[in-house]
Write a structure and sequence with these properties.
The complex is a heterodimer of chains A (about 600) and B (about 350).
Chain A lengths: L1 H15 L3 H29 L10 H35 L8 H20 L17 H4 L4 H29 L12 H33 L13 H34 L6 H17 L12 H13 L1 H15 L8 H24 L1 H7 L3 H31 L5 H27 L16 H27 L32 E2 L5 H8 L5 E2 L6 E3 L5 H17 L3 H20 L5 E3 L1 H8 L3
Helix pairs in contact in A: 2-3, 2-4, 2-16, 3-4, 3-6, 3-8, 3-14, 4-6, 4-18, 6-7, 6-18, 7-8, 7-9, 8-9, 8-12, 8-14, 9-11, 11-12, 12-14, 12-15, 14-15, 15-16, 18-19
Chain B lengths: L3 H15 L14 H34 L17 H30 L8 E8 L2 E6 L4 E4 L1 E5 L4 E7 L4 E5 L3 E6 L5 E5 L5 E7 L12 E6 L1 H12 L3 H4 L4 H13 L5 E2 L2 E2 L16 E2 L3 E2 L2 H9 L1 H4 L13 H13 L7
Parallel strand pairs in B: 1-5, 4-10
Antiparallel strand pairs in B: 1-2, 2-3, 5-8, 6-7, 6-9, 9-10, 11-12, 13-14
Classes of the chains: A mainly alpha (about 600), B alpha+beta (about 350).
């Protein structure tokens, strides 16, 4: 009886939490689930493409799989997983007790989750979206089934969550840094999270507008894109890529940040060329916005635009190159430890360079006419996104796992996982460069025998199977390592998050730390007693109350979306009513939070 | 000879790449000036990129071997802040490399966009449909479906259009792709110096049968092309009114069932219909991908949906065997070039 009650309260606690650490874990768990789902979709496609003319799945199902794989991996896996780390780690790295807006943080998560669930429900309710993750009109506006409605509304809801979270991180990083933590003393992960959040702030509105236009077109007969009524289909592509290209950097920059932390920690050196790294991050963020039309070289925007966007795109290679060399010189002269986390970071460098150079090749507009929409492109962006983002996520997982969950992942299993995954990854995607140039368009449900495409496709599928086996090894690792308790600072860390007890207290820092140098904890290890200096006396800590309202706000939009998809206006009204009602309650209810008393803190910290 | 070491890896890469894929399909074995230009640009970018990879790999391997932690090694490495000169070097060198690539690229981009026509140019309007290709020759007043006939050694300018969704027109061995965008007319040019049949594909996701939206480019010498165009414009009366008994019956079946969508010799068809069938008997494949034989043809006519999901042709399973046989015979007889 009492046991059941206790469990219920644990569930309630997680549903209502506004603690950035718990929200971070929620992001990781749900992002991990969607990652597995997207992986399953990928494996089904690779089985279908293992042999020519195979009827493992129908062409229609294949189009749904490829659309959902892309959508899921970008919006529901990669970004939330990065948000998971950002949520947990960024406040710790800047010496803060929480994010700027804890309630919004929770709202952002639940919006993402309900949006993700909505999109995936389409599998069971009349067919998933099938126009590619880019949903080009008019295929998506006039020639597709209700699946696209799920796509439009699901992404709208989860995109709203992303935008809210992005703004939250911007404010948090600007306002909540501990005393002494100037911008130029921020760890690179925080820096890159900051720039990524700024990109979210500018990029997501473009997506929102695009999706809104598509929604109006599909549900209410608007004609922004309908050519017969004076619409223009290229508008969608511009809006989508004005969002879509920065999105790549929203994903890769935090991953760059993770690598910067890990390479410095495990070579026992401060990051080489820190300020150059910061500026390179900013320049990449800026250029990321300026080059969207390189996705549209074959659309017919003319040679002048093509040439300008080609050169602007190539320019991104310069700050990226600066980063690569700075990482290499961080390792140079260091004492390199080959932990699993560091293996992922080291494995990232050549993998990502491969993806980067093919990026420059793709930017070559005249040659792009051959590359565009072929498997060459598929190979390129998987090199960037898996070789960069996914390796970064796994590196971050092995690195921060002890901080987040209090135990270390098994190193032996981790290394097996790393090698199998890396080998499978290169096997899958390296050959695809050639498949593309040999005449295989992307997004094809199958290919004909006798066109010289058979053997390399087979090799590619075998690689994909190896990657899945590797991922299962990771899941096993998560379970079997539970008893592998970790100390507070298992890696001899350099940044603030390693300077506090484990498990992380809910208030993070008993006393806000005083930051005296870059790599604050390392500095104290070298120049002090190894403990963070306090910037304030020990006192009561103010904490925000949890709230169930974010779930209801998200649930309301979720219900409203069903009303729109099936044209049942009352359902939409009820749904929006729930959301607005929850917002109203939030506005009128006084909520001053609560205090953790300093006596309790002393007890927990084991002082006095 | 001094430059040999620089040329060698380049030639090796191209040699290696040339061996890849099926002839007249792969972009790695170009058969015309446009694809050639793109191929050498790919080669140049590849050369620069391989150089970058080699430099990074060299530093990488050295660092990982030289600075790995050895057992019992507990030293604290010097905390180096950075190095301004190095930063300048690895900013400047990539910029130089990119300029080397950007200059020819910009020139080629403009060359490829130059689609001016003169009297010797052949203009072809290419329309993408779900899921087949229509080729209209405005100057010759003929329309063909699925098989694009072109004369060798002639500059050909395509005007690209789409009737429904976005398609993308790609003949890897002859030229890179351009999109067929509804409401917009794009253009591109090619030349095919060698006779042969080249493979073309649609590369923009356009629905269920996107992967089967293949077509063939048949490059023939200019005389044969003229003969073909002549035949398409004014098919001999034998074709319109077949003499052989069975084919005449087939013509009747065709008129009753197919003529509403498919034109033959300028008769029949409609703008939303299927491909022009004037020279159907000369095709090498059916519907862009099926082996051309009587069996496949019957399978296609009876149940096109099973062969190419999402295509708009209704099935004609109601035809009895005799009607089907004569229809196939008639279709086989649709030829505009003399058999030789």
């Amino acid at each position: 009886m009492s046991n059941a009650k206790a469990q219920k309260s644990v569930l309630w606690d997680w549903l209502t939490t506004v603690d950035h650490k718990k929200i971070g874990i929620l992001y990781l768990v749900s992002g991990g689930f969607f990652f597995a789902l997207g992986g399953l979709e990928a494996i089904l496609m690779r089985i279908q493409l293992m042999f020519p003319n195979l009827g493992f799945v129908s062409a229609q199902t294949f189009n749904e799989l490829l659309t959902m794989h892309g959508t899921t991996m970008i919006f529901l896996a990669a970004m939330p997983l990065l948000f998971g780390f950002m949520n947990y780690i960024v406040p710790l790295q800047i010496g803060a007790r929480d994010v700027a807006f804890p309630f919004l943080n929770s709202l952002g998560f639940w919006l993402f989750l309900f949006g993700g669930i909505l999109i995936n429900l389409s599998w069971f309710l009349g067919g998933a979206p099938d126009a590619g993750w880019t949903a080009y009109v008019p295929l998506s506006s006039e020639y597709s089934g209700t699946g696209i409605d799920y796509y439009v509304l699901g992404l709208q809801i989860s995109g709203l969550g992303t935008l809210i979270s992005g703004i939250n991180f911007l404010v948090t990083i600007i306002n909540m840094r501990a005393p002494g933590m100037s911008m130029m003393r921020m760890p690179l992960f925080t820096w890159s999270s900051f720039v990524a959040s700024a990109l979210i702030l500018f990029a997501f509105p473009a997506l929102t507008v695009g999706l809104l236009l598509l929604m109006l077109e599909r549900l209410f007969g608007a004609t922004y894109f309908a050519v017969d009524f004076g619409g223009n289909v290229v508008i969608w592509q511009h809006l989508f890529w004005i969002f879509g290209h920065p999105e790549v950097y929203i994903l890769i920059l935090p991953a760059f940040g993770i690598f910067s932390e890990i390479l410095a920690t495990f070579s026992k050196k401060r990051l080489f060329g820190y300020s150059a790294m910061v500026f390179a991050t900013l320049i990449i963020g800026f250029l990321g916005f300026m080059v969207w039309a390189h996705h549209m070289f074959t659309v017919g925007i003319g040679p002048v635009a093509n040439a300008i966007f080609a050169v602007a795109t190539m320019a991104i290679a310069v700050p990226t190159g600066i980063k690569i060399f700075n990482w290499l010189f961080t390792l140079w002269g260091g004492r390199i430890q080959f932990t699993t986390a560091n293996l992922f970071a080291i494995g990232f460098i050549p993998s990502f360079v491969m993806g980067g150079v093919t990026g420059v090749m793709l930017a070559t507009s005249a040659a792009n006419y051959q590359f565009h929409d072929t498997y060459f492109v598929v190979a390129h962006f998987h090199y960037v996104i898996i070789g960069g983002v996914v390796l970064g996520l796994f590196a971050g997982a092995f690195y921060w796992w002890p901080r987040m969950f209090g135990y270390k992942l098994n190193e032996t299993l981790g290394k097996w996982f790393f090698w199998l995954f890396l080998f499978g990854f290169h096997l899958t995607f390296f050959v695809q460069h050639f498949v593309g140039l040999m005449g295989m368009p992307r997004r094809v449900a199958s290919y004909l025998p006798g066109q010289g495409l058979d053997s390399l496709n087979f090799v590619s599928s075998v690689g994909a199977i190896l990657m899945s086996v590797a991922f299962i090894l990771f899941l096993v690792n998560v379970v079997v390592s539970v008893k592998n308790k970790s100390e507070a600072d298992p890696w001899d860390g350099r940044t603030l998050e390693w300077g506090i007890p484990t498990p992380t207290p809910e208030y993070n820092f008993a006393q806000t730390p005083l930051v005296r140098e870059l790599d604050a904890l390392w500095y104290e290890k070298m120049h002090g007693n190894g403990k963070l200096k306090a910037a304030e006396p020990l006192d009561d800590i103010h904490m925000p109350n949890g709230s169930i309202l974010p779930i209801f706000m998200s649930l309301g939009l979720f219900i409203a979306a069903f009303g729109l998809i099936y044209h049942v206006i009352p359902v939409t009204v009820i749904g929006l009513g729930i959301t607005l009602g929850a917002m109203f309650i939030r506005s009128i209810k006084e909520d001053h939070g609560y205090h953790i008393h300093k006596e309790d803190i002393k007890k927990e910290e084991g002082v006095g | 000879m001094k430059n040999l070491w620089r040329v060698l890896p380049f030639s090796f890469i191209l040699l290696f790449l040339a061996g890849c894929g099926k002839q007249n399909l792969t972009a790695l074995d170009p058969r015309g000036p446009v694809a050639d230009m793109q191929h050498s640009l790919i080669g140049l970018s590849l050369l620069i990129m391989v150089f970058v990879i080699v430099v990074v790999a060299a530093i990488y391997v050295f660092v990982l071997i030289r600075f790995r932690e050895k057992p019992g090694d507990n030293h604290i490495p010097e905390q180096v802040e950075g190095n301004k000169n190095l930063e300048i070097i690895w900013t400047a060198i990539p910029i130089l490399l990119l300029i080397i690539l950007a200059v020819p690229n910009v020139m080629d981009t403009f060359t490829l966009a130059d689609t001016e026509t003169d009297d010797d140019t052949l203009v072809v309007n290419v329309t993408g449909h779900q899921f087949w290709w229509e080729f209209e020759y405005p100057d010759l007043e003929i329309t063909a479906g699925q098989d694009l006939y072109i004369p060798t050694d002639t500059r050909i300018v395509f005007n690209l259009e789409a009737s429904d969704v976005i398609h993308s027109f790609w003949i890897p061995a002859l030229a890179g792709k351009q999109d067929n965008v509804p409401g917009i007319t794009n253009d591109m040019w090619i030349e095919a110096p060698e006779e042969g049949v080249y493979f073309g594909k649609c590369t923009e996701l356009c629905g269920e049968a996107h992967w089967l939206m293949d077509f063939k480019v048949v490059a023939v010498d200019p005389d044969t092309f003229d003969e073909w165009a002549q035949g398409m414009a004014e098919p001999d009366s034998e074709l319109i009114e077949p003499t052989e008994e069975v084919a005449a019956e087939g013509r009747e079946v065709f008129e009753q069932n197919c003529l509403a969508c498919h034109a033959v010799g300028g008769e029949g068809g409609n703008p939303q219909g299927g491909p022009d069938l004037t020279n159907f008997g000369e095709r090498t494949v059916i519907a862009g991908f099926m082996e051309y034989d009587d069996e496949s043809l019957e399978a296609w006519i009876r149940h096109p949906e099973e062969q190419k999901p999402g295509n708009l042709m209704p099935g004609f399973d109601q035809l009895d065997d005799d009607e089907m046989d004569s229809l196939i015979e008639y279709l086989n007889s649709l030829k505009v070039l003399d058999d030789e």
